[in-house]
């Protein structure tokens, strides 16, 4: 059971949160690349309930005794990490219905989903890398829940400047909106809130001056110091 399911992080955009994490020397700014909302939804912020998927042929990986949706805690943000090479969906409309019945608040998928219209009809927030017509069987299966996930960027990454993977621990704060998905480590929650609030105040001053015609460079220098 989660001890707390709400955070003041919900007041800030994923961009503001990433800026704060960069200031805390988190090299990826909490950003999990290329995961987008599957239909427009309001910002979602909640603690992570993690699920690791494996190839269905992997007989050495652990097996779950219950369906992972049925054990999702109320108020949680389900985070699924699927094998990078698979083209099937690991989430569908029935799972959104089940998660909604469990009072989960949304799902983040490093992988694919399907049944887009069903999620939208349920108004259940789904964030994923892409979608598919293929279901889970016979391609993948859930293996573990409430374990750390190391989510790597997918696609072509320059070897000269590799983007670091994001580690998602159970209970870390997940924030997702129109701009993307970020993970805030539990230990950094309040530092991020403080820095994001300061960053917003500075950006509001910059916006005021830029709209007044003072120029981007002069406004940045006056309020950002550069």
Description of the structure:
This protein is of the alpha/beta class. It has 5 helices and 10 strands. The chain has helices spanning 14-23, 93-101, 116-122, 189-211, 216-223; strands at residues 36-37, 44-55, 77-81, 106-113, 126-131, 140-145, 149-151, 166-168, 173-177, 180-184. Helix 2 links the parallel strand 3 (77-81) and strand 4. Helix 2 (93-101) runs parallel beside helix 3.
Largest sheet: 8 strands, mixed
Given helix and strand content, the structural type is alpha/beta
Helix content: 25-40%
> What spatial form do the alpha-carbon principal axes imply?
elongated
Strands, total number: 10
Average the pLDDT over all residues and give the rounded result. Answer: 95
User: For the CA atoms, what is the radius of gyration?
Assistant: 19 Å
Write a concise synopsis of the structure shown.
This protein has five helices and ten strands. The protein is of the alpha/beta class and 226 residues long. The strands form two sheets. Strands 1, 2, 3, 4, 5, 6, 9 and 10 form an eight-stranded mixed β-sheet that branches. Strands 7-8 form a two-stranded antiparallel ribbon.
């Amino acid at each position: 059971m989660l001890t707390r399911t709400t955070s003041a992080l919900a007041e800030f955009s994923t961009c503001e949160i990433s800026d704060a994490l960069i200031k805390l020397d988190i090299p990826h700014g909490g950003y999990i690349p290329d995961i987008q909302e599957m239909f427009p939804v309001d910002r979602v912020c909640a603690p992570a309930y993690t699920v690791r998927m494996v190839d269905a042929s992997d007989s050495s990986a652990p097996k779950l005794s219950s369906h992972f949706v049925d054990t999702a805690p109320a108020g949680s943000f389900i985070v699924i990490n699927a094998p990078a090479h698979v083209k099937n969906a690991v989430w569908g409309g029935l799972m959104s219905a089940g998660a909604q019945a469990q009072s989960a608040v949304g799902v983040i998928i490093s992988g694919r989903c399907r049944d887009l219209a069903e999620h939208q009809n349920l108004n259940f927030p789904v964030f994923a890398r892409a979608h598919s017509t293929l279901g889970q069987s016979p391609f993948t299966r859930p293996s573990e829940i409430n374990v750390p996930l190391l989510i790597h960027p997918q696609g072509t990454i320059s070897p000269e400047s590799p983007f670091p993977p994001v580690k998602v621990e159970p209970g870390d704060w997940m924030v997702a909106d129109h701009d993307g998905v970020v993970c805030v480590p539990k230990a950094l929650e309040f530092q991020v809130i403080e820095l994001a609030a300061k960053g917003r105040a500075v950006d509001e001053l910059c916006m005021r001056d830029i709209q007044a015609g003072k120029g981007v460079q002069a406004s940045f220098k006056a309020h950002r110091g550069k």
